[in-house]
Write a structure and sequence with these properties.
Strand content: over 45%
Shape: globular
Number of strands: 14
Distance between the termini: 33 Å
Length: about 230
């Protein structure tokens, strides 16, 4: 009976997705190629949840990304909120023993109401050991005639600017910037149990800011998920 009660208190959910380009914070993680992604979440009735999320990637950080989240989500009136900690891991890069240390931790928080969402994230040592980093974003989503419409914009701020740190180290170039913006405009539709999304994802980075400009340039991305 105790085991049955414990199972009733925890719900699991998952997803699988195929996307034409895995864009993370506006920058392609797959060199503008397709990716397969999946997730599994266990949520307790208290609001505590744990998630494992993974994606195929391409480049310096190896062939896979595996993220682990532990958080708490709840609502009060019309406002929902979410706080937690996240671990970004790149098993392929770690197994190759190249000396690159892409893994990092991040804390995050967000609040949402009436289609609007505001959120922040912070890492004391961001991807590729580039130092302190903060992420602030806002979005608005609305359903119109059966279509989901979403607009999203965010600031990526690198707080350290020493040797091997900051935006220069992250992009692998010598740029005068310490931050950049990323944005997304998307339309989605439920079709036969699948979610189909077409989005335009971009940044305000110039071609010269990236070692491979194909990773930073804006482009249309199509994603099918279940």
């Amino acid at each position: 009976m105790a085991a049955g009660a414990a199972q009733a208190a925890v719900k699991t959910s998952g997803s699988v997705a195929f996307t034409t380009d895995y864009k993370f914070r506006g920058i392609s993680q797959t060199s503008a190629n397709a990716a397969v992604q999946g997730s599994l979440t266990a949520t307790h009735d208290s609001g505590i949840y744990a998630t494992v999320w993974g994606s195929s990637i391409d480049g310096l950080t190896g062939g896979s990304e595996m993220d682990l989240l532990l958080g708490y989500a709840a609502s009060s009136g019309d406002i929902s909120y979410d706080v937690g900690v996240m671990r970004y891991a790149y098993p392929g890069a770690n197994a190759a023993n190249t000396g690159v240390k892409p893994d990092y931790n991040e804390v995050y928080a967000s609040a949402a109401a009436h289609g609007f969402k505001l959120g922040v994230a912070y890492s004391d040592d961001y991807n590729l050991e580039t130092g302190a980093f903060s992420y602030v974003y806002g979005s608005y989503s609305k359903e119109v005639s059966g279509f989901g419409l979403t607009a999203y914009v965010a600031q990526n701020k690198f707080h350290d600017d020493g040797a091997g740190e900051g935006l220069d180290a992250f992009l692998g170039t010598a740029t005068s910037h310490t931050s950049y913006l990323d944005y997304k405009l998307a339309v989605s539709k439920q079709i036969e149990g699948l979610t189909v999304e077409v989005a335009y994802v971009g940044t305000d980075l110039a071609d010269a800011d990236c070692v491979d400009k194909v990773n930073c340039e804006g482009r249309a991305v199509a994603t099918v998920s279940k």
